[in-house]
Design brief:
This protein has 243 residues and is of the alpha/beta class. The chain is built from eight helices and nine strands. Strands 3-2-4-5-1-6-7-8-9 form a nine-stranded mixed β-sheet. The longest helix is centred in the first third of the chain and has 17 residues. The two termini are 24 Å apart.
Length: 243
């Protein structure tokens, strides 16, 4: 079973392996979530590319806008994959998806691009789509009304989260590495320890309940919760992941 990664490089390696296993198991809509506000998606995406080498030039990489695609074309030397942007409108969507494309990587889409991304996935059909470092559930996105929220909810429900890593507060992290279960990790005595396993992603209330009980361990002895010291544990965790 996967352990909580100690570095960003470890997390990306885990994410590539989890994605590969999920594709082999038949999943076609996947997402990899590294939920750190400070994390820049382009370096993560570049380190994620080795997963697709087996597909040769049959890979299509899509960015939220033309600027992102142009930046990748400039900076990613000797990358053989085709690159484009998500675009807008049904005609643009159809033009971006070609019969020879075998697998797709979508880098850092936001809630604004959900409608177009859904159209793209309809055109793609049963070919694999990997959504990397999305921000589609950003509740703070301006201009997202009820219909857009429902579209986002419906679309996200069709995606398998094959890798998920999110610090919840200064001492707690939620982690999932396919095919493993969803896990809650807690910093205790300077080390992160797994305190709970769940079949589904824990809601805020479920996570609060786990922490209120002091953690549901895999054994019989619960781990006591320490009084949090604001941001200290989270800062250490982010520093380790960025090293």
């Amino acid at each position: 079973m996967a352990e909580l990664p100690k570095t960003l490089e470890d997390a990306i390696i885990q994410a590539r392996e989890a994605t590969q296993v999920a594709i082999a198991d038949g999943y076609t809509r996947l997402q990899v979530e590294l939920l750190f506000p400070e994390l820049k998606p382009m370096p993560v995406a570049e380190q994620f590319l080795p997963l697709f080498e087996q597909y040769g030039d049959k890979v299509k990489i899509l960015f939220p806008d033309a600027g992102g695609a142009a930046l990748a074309k400039r900076d990613w030397v000797d990358v053989p994959f085709k690159m484009s942007d998500i675009g807008s409108g049904r005609t643009a969507t159809q033009m971006k998806i070609q019969p020879e494309d075998k697998i797709f990587l979508v880098v850092a889409p936001t809630a604004v691009e959900v409608l177009q991304l859904e159209k793209l996935c309809e055109e793609i059909g049963d070919r694999p789509v990997v959504i990397l470092t999305p921000r589609m559930e950003d509740a703070g996105t301006v201009g997202i009304g009820y219909t857009a929220r429902e579209t986002r909810r419906r679309f996200i429900s069709t995606i398998e989260s094959c890798y998920y890593l999110r610090p919840v507060d200064d001492e707690t992290a939620v982690f999932r590495c396919y095919p493993g279960m969803w896990e809650v990790w807690l910093e205790t005595n300077g080390e992160y320890q797994k305190i709970a396993e769940l079949a589904k992603k824990p809601s805020g209330d479920e996570l609060d309940a786990i922490l209120m009980k002091g953690g549901q361990t895999l054994g019989d002895n619960p781990i006591p919760i320490k009084k949090p010291s604001v941001f200290k544990g989270l800062q250490r965790f982010l520093k380790a992941l960025s090293s």
